[in-house]
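May I ask for an example protein's residues together with how it folds?

___
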Amino acid sequence: MKCHPCYIVTQLLKEKLETTIFTGFEFDSVEVTKDEYFDNNYQLKKPLPKFYWMKIVGLKHKDDLFIDDNLEFFIDNRLLDYLKQNSTLNYLDINPARDKFDDLLDSMIADSEVKH
């Protein structure tokens, strides 16, 4: 799960990453709650996993994960390959194509910068 630039990972992924040599991240606790909509629409047959906040603290050209000045997330290919081989990445979208929403956000940001 993510809410840019906040990344939430399962305990399993956290434990896997902690045993590697990859850099640019650290973990912290996170509180996860479910609302009525979730309970009414998702009848899970197993409990939710424990989640952790994966803080991206890496530096450009130094670490395997980092967020640049434009808030773009970067991952080293070695780490990406590791994740592909050792994790389930059902919703991973690498270099997604721009769409109308991106253009709208750019326009809104440009408008707000002009007003300041």
